[in-house]
């Protein structure tokens, strides 16, 4: 009896191969042939799941995005009722975390950002992710204002945008080696200390 193929697992295997290659070489260094070699499967098998390179790249971006969301939820899970500051810090620290999987995700995010400037489908997906992060930060900051942990009169939308932009900028500088990760985290924490000073 022929062995059943788990198509979801096979697509995840291909996405992991794409992620490893993008992190190591950038998007230009990814071809269907390279992905097949990295995944340990035939090029025909890759083409069976993805007709084009762009289709494969979009799936990989969706895959790593879902992996990041799951990781954030896992980091928040030990706290039965995380404080607004804990939520904001956990979400933004994902952009600066030195864990190898997180660094890979950070490198992939930056690589896709550059491509999204000329690829509307990728841009739409990234913008959807940005909107989700922004909304989560705004909600936490709004709860912080209500609880008195954030100064009354603080606009949650603006405060969320500032914190998000700070973490995004630190991510790029950290990846390039301009700022050490420990220093970047210290800068983010100092910003959050001021924001959540009540």
Structural class comes to mainly alpha
Instruction: Kindly report how far apart the N and C termini lie.
Output: 66 Å
Helix segment count? Answer: 9
| Mean of all residue-level pLDDT scores | 91
What report would you give on this structure?
The protein has helices at residues 7-25, 32-39, 43-49, 53-76, 84-93, 100-116, 120-147, 156-176, 181-195. It is mainly alpha-helical and 198 residues long. The mean pLDDT is 91.
Fill in the keyword field for this structure.
mainly alpha, 9 helices
Q: How are the elements arranged and paired?
A:
Layout: H1 7-25, H2 32-39, H3 43-49, H4 53-76, H5 84-93, H6 100-116, H7 120-147, H8 156-176, H9 181-195
Helix pairs in contact: 1-2, 1-4, 1-6, 2-3, 4-6, 4-7, 5-7, 5-9, 6-7, 7-8, 8-9
Summarize the structure.
Helices cover 75% and strands 0% of the residues.
């Amino acid at each position: 009896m022929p062995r059943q193929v788990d198509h979801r697992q096979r697509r995840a295997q291909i996405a992991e191969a794409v992620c490893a290659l993008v992190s190591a070489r950038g998007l230009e260094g990814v071809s269907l042939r390279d992905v097949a070699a990295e995944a340990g499967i035939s090029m025909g098998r890759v083409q069976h799941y993805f007709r084009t390179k762009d289709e494969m790249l979009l799936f990989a971006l969706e895959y790593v995005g879902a992996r990041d969301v799951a990781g954030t939820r896992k980091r928040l899970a030990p706290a039965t009722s995380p404080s607004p500051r804990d939520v904001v810090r956990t979400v933004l620290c994902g952009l600066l975390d030195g864990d190898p999987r997180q660094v890979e995700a950070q490198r992939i995010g930056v690589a896709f950002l550059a491509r999204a400037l000329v690829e509307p489908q990728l841009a739409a997906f990234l913008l959807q992710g940005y909107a989700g992060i922004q909304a989560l930060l705004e909600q936490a900051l709004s709860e912080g204002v209500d609880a008195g942990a954030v100064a009354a009169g603080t606009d949650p939308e603006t405060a969320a945008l500032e914190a998000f932009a700070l973490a995004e900028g630190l991510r790029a500088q950290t990846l390039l080696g301009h700022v050490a990760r420990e220093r970047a985290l210290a800068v983010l924490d100092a910003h959050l200390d001021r924001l959540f000073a009540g």
